[in-house]
C-alpha cells in the first residue's frame, strides 16, 4: 500500500493496530515501523517500507540485532537516529530475556547458569569466556570476562582467571563460554584449557567447580559428563 502511513485506513496503521489488537498482532516489519517512527519524505518511503527493507537486507531480527548502527544506516532513509532506536529496542528485547545474577546469589546447578546466559549468548557470533567467582558457600561474588574471540591456550591463561579470583578471595570458580555454532560439544582445545585451569586452581586452592558450554537451546556441563 503506497503513501504515508497516516493516509492508511486507521485499522491498518501499526500504532492503532497495536492499541486495538495487541503487539502480538503486528508483523516484524510493523513493529520495526513503530520503532523507526517516521518515513523518509525525500524518497516517499513510509516507516513500514523501511522496516520491510531492514528485514530483506538482514534476513531476520537475529541478524538485525547483530548489525552495527552503520550497517543499519546503509538502508536508504534510515539515518543515525533511526538506527539508534532500532539498536536500543533490540537490546532491550535481549535484556528482557536475560536474568542477571545478583551478588551473593547461590549457585545451585549447571542449568541455573544456562538459564542465565542462554539469551545473552544465543545471538553472539564470537566466543566469550567468563569466570564466575564464588565464595565458600557457592555464592556468586563477581562475573569476570576473561576473553572475547576464538579460544586458544595463549589467550585463556590461568593468570587471567585466577588473578581476579585471588583479589576477590574467591573459594571457587565456574568457567562459562559459548559456542556460536550452537553445538555445545567440547573441542579438544576446550578440554585442554579446562584441564590447565583445573590444575592451576588446585595449586592455588581455588576449585574449578564446573565448565559450562552454552549452545543454542542446549548446554554441556563438564561435571555432569564426568569430564572434570
Fraction in helix: 40-55%
What is the helix/strand order?
HHHHHHHEEHEHEE
**Computed CA radius of gyration, to the nearest angstrom:** 23 Å
Report how far the terminal alpha carbons are from each other.
Answer: 60 Å
Strand content: 5-15%
Say what the CATH topology of the largest domain is: Cytidine Deaminase, domain 2
Number of domains: 2
Low-pLDDT stretches: none
By DSSP, the count of extended strands is 5
SS-derived structural category: alpha+beta
Structural write-up:
β1 and β2 form a beta hairpin. This protein has 2 domains: 92 residues, DNA polymerase, domain 1; 112 residues, Cytidine Deaminase, domain 2 (3-Layer(aba) Sandwich). 42% of the residues lie in helices and 15% in strands. The termini are far apart. It has 228 residues and is an alpha+beta fold. The protein is elongated, with a radius of gyration of 23 Å.
Descriptive tags:
about 230 residues; alpha+beta; DNA polymerase, domain 1; Cytidine Deaminase, domain 2; 2 domains; five-stranded mixed beta sheet; 9 helices
Amino acid at each position: 500500500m503506497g503513501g504515508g502511513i497516516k493516509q492508511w485506513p486507521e485499522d491498518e496503521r501499526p500504532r492503532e493496530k497495536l492499541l486495538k489488537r495487541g503487539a502480538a498482532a503486528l508483523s516484524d516489519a510493523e513493529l520495526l515501523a513503530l520503532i523507526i517512527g517516521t518515513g523518509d519524505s525525500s524518497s516517499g518511503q513510509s516507516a513500514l517500507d523501511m522496516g520491510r527493507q531492514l528485514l530483506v537486507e538482514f534476513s531476520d531480527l537475529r541478524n538485525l540485532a547483530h548489525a552495527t548502527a552503520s550497517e543499519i544506516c546503509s538502508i536508504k532513509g534510515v539515518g543515525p537516529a533511526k538506527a539508534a532506536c532500532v539498536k536500543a529496542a533490540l537490546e532491550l528485547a535481549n535484556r528482557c530475556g536475560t536474568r542477571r545474577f545478583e551478588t551473593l546469589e547461590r549457585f545451585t546447578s549447571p542449568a541455573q547458569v544456562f538459564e542465565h546466559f542462554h539469551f545473552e549468548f544465543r545471538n553472539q557470533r564470537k566466543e566469550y569466556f567468563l569466570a564466575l567467582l564464588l565464595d565458600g558457600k557457592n555464592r556468586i561474588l563477581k562475573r569476570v570476562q576473561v576473553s572475547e574471540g576464538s579460544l586458544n591456550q595463549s589467550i585463556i591463561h590461568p593468570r587471567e582467571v585466577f588473578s581476579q579470583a585471588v583479589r576477590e578471595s574467591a573459594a571457587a570458580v565456574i568457567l562459562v563460554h559459548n559456542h556460536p555454532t550452537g553445538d555445545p560439544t567440547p573441542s579438544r582445545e576446550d578440554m585442554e584449557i579446562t584441564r590447565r585451569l583445573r590444575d592451576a586452581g588446585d595449586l592455588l586452592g581455588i576449585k574449578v567447580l564446573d565448565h559450562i558450554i552454552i549452545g543454542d537451546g542446549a548446554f554441556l556441563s563438564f561435571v555432569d559428563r564426568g569430564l572434570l
